[in-house]
Amino acid sequence: MKSPIPPRPRNLLPVWLAAILAVLWLIVRDLEISFETLAYGASDLVEYFGRYRHFDFSELSRYLELMGVTLATALWGTALAFVIAFILAPFAARNMTPSPIAYRIAREILNFLRAIPDLLMGLIFVAALGLGPLPGALALGLHTAGFLGKFFAESFERIDRGICEGVASTGASFAQVVMYAGWPSILREATGYTLFMLDRNVRMGAVLGLVGAGGIGLALQDTLRLFNYPQAATLILVILVTILILDYGTAWLRAKLN
Amino acid sequence: MRALNWQWPTRNGLPLPGTMISIVVAVTALGLTASVAEISLPRLIGSLGKMTVFIAQMFQGFNWDYLPQMLAKMLETLEMTVLATAIAVVISLPLGVLAAKNASPHPIVYRLTRDVLSLMRALPELVWALVFVSAVGLGPLPGVMALAFVTVGFMAKFFAESIEVVDSKAVEGVHAHGASWVQVRYFAMLPQALPDLVGTLMYILDHNLRAATILGLVGAGGIGYDMVMSMRLFQYDRLILIGLGIYVVVTLLDRLSDTLRSRLLHGKRV
Amino acid sequence: MSSISIQSVSKRFPNGFEALKHIDVDIASGSFTVILGPSGAGKSTLLRMMNGLETPSTGAIVIDGERICRNKLRSIRSRVSMVFQQFNLVDRLSVMTNVLTGRLSQRSWFGSVLYLFRREDMDIAQQALQRVGLIDKAWNRADKLSGGQQQRVGIARALAQNPKVILADEPVASLDPVASGEIMTLLREICERDNITVVVNLHQVELARRFADRIIGMNDGRLVFDGTPEQLTSSALHTIYRREGTTHESVELAVAYA
Fold it and tell me: pLDDT class for A146, splitting at 50, 70, 90?
């Protein structure tokens, strides 16, 4: 006797796919994106990117200096983020926090910092502090403190419960539990996250100049406004090379840590 | 320290060399770059007054007449995010296969794809937006292009990494039954990597939304343009609405992505 | 004089499970007490309460005339040290630093968060390590040691607190028989020489008989036996290890293997 096969579960994939495609079509309509012009303009686009063929190295030293400012801004921003996250993360980790209220407050502060784009913070700090890299460093620092703090707190929450109990059972205070059970256990992960943030802050620092917060971003916008493609190409090259070097550098450091 | 009767718990009573070197390097680097970054505590403290005034101004009131336009712009930002991410998924899936060590057809293809991807993600979205705006004009289109471009760089790399950790036994099993090159990748590798891919997708959606909110700064669509203009024109009653709008949407997606990712990682809990 | 006094303590967990039901027991100063019972009997919960790692739902626990409550937790924990089944050492720290965590309750947060210790703390830690025979491993990382050695570090950490009471929660459950015997001998010796009250949770009847002054049997959150090792007859064991729905034979078997 043939035993009946249980009814085949309905495959909903086509339905989902159709729904997604429909939504995307609506979005394209709403954004008034015309792919026809994009297709027709493909040759124009090739021609356009051809303009970046030539480089103009006459102002290279100024560009390098600007890149240096961007790097310094990113470094200080990351340091600030680390300090804030270092202080807030233990409060924002469920297994470390001294009280549920402190947990809620720390979490909300971190959420808030993450939710405000660093460019908006940059705008605000430029208004208050004037032009220059300092407002940029502040904006980067505060925004990425939200991320670092969250990452650190999540790392804390993955620590074996027993390790924290072991230190707490000796009568250690909150700060002592954090320093002896918490940080040593997550040090490696935390370093990795901080390097990742440094990486991210250099990229972001390269565009903060657009709001007057120092660095190389403003120069790029100016050259593009003046249709000076050789100079723009050089600037992009400088940014690209710096970021790639940094990328490999931090990747190497991370690999060494593991 | 010895005189004070304090010491570190090491053989010689001094901190570990690794710790000492790291701290010295970090402090020196910060010290040397302080002047370049114009770090100045007096300036910071001096600006506190201005900052309070500024924040007070921001909380003076809401321009409710502006609300519909803000919502429209916020919707546009969301739409750009979704569209760019969708385009990036379609491009990243095949590129991810090419950039995975165990799925790539040839080591040279693997190396080449990896390098191209790392170039694509090297520059931030805003730089590409600048370039695309000067190529195709103002509007959401250059924004979507810039977002999709950089996203492919990240997403294909993440996809490749998820494919690389796939269990090789199932792959061999499918292979042994005479499956073709594409079939092995479609039936044995992708299903295994799928949970990872969805997690990556959520993470990237979250990242792209944040990026999309500022693309308007260079005229590439979304709420960023209004944000900068209300800032420049001192329309704080609009700025606070924009800030709130971004805050709410970003936080919602952040929570959603957290919930989904932890559900994928730890099963149906949460 | 009684060192620990447990006064009609009950514990109900948030999920509704009642782990302890009106436990009343006094433990004499300087005695070696073993708590026996099947898993889930509540012996771990009871022990953890004496260190304040769990709080009773009703009733009170008094250590040396002082009732455990939240604001006295630190001072009580400094006198009541804890040894864990999984050792609960901080893996990434040296053996010496792990032992020094036993001194944290005596120090303010300022020096200790910088990992600075006083000369006398170092001496105490060194003596504790000598006592457990691990002085030559002082600078090794804690996770590089074998299970038996890690448990010795756990005991050294407990000793470094200069405690009045040592609580050991299944200290040998993760160890082989030889290491188990060594650890129990060490605990017994500490009890006798330093006149420290020792309370040990065990599930090995044989070890309990060999080392205890007094055995307390628990089943299903209740005290079902209290007496000397000689009084622990096989019928007493049946009471301790009885479970609802089990036959006489299966208990016999369980006791034989316990």
Answer: very high
pTM: 0.86
Question: Under 8 Å CB-to-CB from B11, ≥6 apart: which residues?
Answer: C139
Burial of B143 (0-12, 13-18, 19+ CB in 10 A): buried
The first and second tokens of residue B137, run together, are 């004009």
Neighbours of A, requiring at least 3 CB pairs below 8 Å, are B, C
- The edge-to-edge listing of strands for the beta sheet with C80-83 is C80-83, C165-169, C197-202, C32-36, C214-219, C222-227
Task: List chain B domain ranges.
Answer: 64-266
What interface predicted TM-score (ipTM) does this complex get? 0.84
Is the CB of A165 inside 8 Å of chain C's CB atoms?
Answer: yes
Q: Is C104 in contact with A176 (Cβ distance < 8 A)? A: yes
Q: What is the mean pLDDT of chain C?
A: 85
Using a CB–CB cutoff of 8 Å, tell me whether B116 touches chain A. no
pLDDT of B180 above 80: no
Considering the domain delimited by C2-257, tell me its CATH architecture: 3-Layer(aba) Sandwich (3.40)
Question: What would the DSSP string read from start to end of B144-155?
Answer: HHHHHHHHHHHH
Helix ranges (DSSP H) in chain B = 17-34, 41-46, 48-58, 67-98, 107-120, 125-136, 140-164, 168-176, 181-183, 190-215, 224-232, 236-266
By CA distance, what is C113's nearest residue in B? B8
Q: Best residue in B1, B2, B7 to probe C by mutation, most C CBs within 10 Å?
A: B7
- Residue C243, pLDDT > 80, answer no
Mutate to test the interface with C, among A87, A95, A170 (most CBs of C within 10 A): A170
Query: What structural domains does chain A harbor?
Result: 69-214 (1.10.3720.10)
C-alpha to C-alpha distance for A239 and C188, rounded to whole angstroms: 68
Residue-wise pLDDT tens digits, C63-93:
888 888 888 888 888 889 999 988 888 988 8
Q: How far is CA B37 from the centre of its chain?
A: 24
Which residue from B minimizes the CA distance to A243? Answer: B122
Which pLDDT score is estimated for B270? 32
Q: Do the Cβ atoms of C237 and C37 come closer than 8 Å?
A: no
Residue A138 has a pLDDT of: 92
Asked whether the beta carbons of A88 and A106 are under 8 A apart, the reply is yes
pLDDT above 60 (res C176):
yes
- pLDDT band of A9, cuts 50, 70, 90: low
Residues of C in contact with A170 (CB under 8 A): 77-78, 81-82, 101-102, 104-105, 157, 161
Polymer length in residues for chain C: 258
CATH class assigned to B64-266: mainly alpha
- Residue window 198-257, chain C: list those with CB within 8 Å of chain B: none
Q: Distance between CA atoms of A157 and B262, rounded to whole angstroms?
A: 13
Residue A118 · residue A80 · CB < 8 Å? no
Joined tokens for residue B200: 């990556």
Q: What's the mean pLDDT in A59-66?
A: 86
Tell me if C153 sits within 8 A of C99, measured CB to CB: yes
Rounded distance between C-alpha atoms, residue A84 and residue A93, angstroms: 14
CB A75 within 8 A of CB B29: yes
Pairing outcome for strands C58-63 and C66-67: antiparallel
Contact list, C88 vs chain A (CB under 8 Å): 160, 162-163, 165-166, 169
Q: Which two tokens stand for residue C67?
A: 């009732």
Three-state DSSP at C58 gives strand
- Residue C179, CB half-sphere, CA atoms under 13 Å: how many? 13
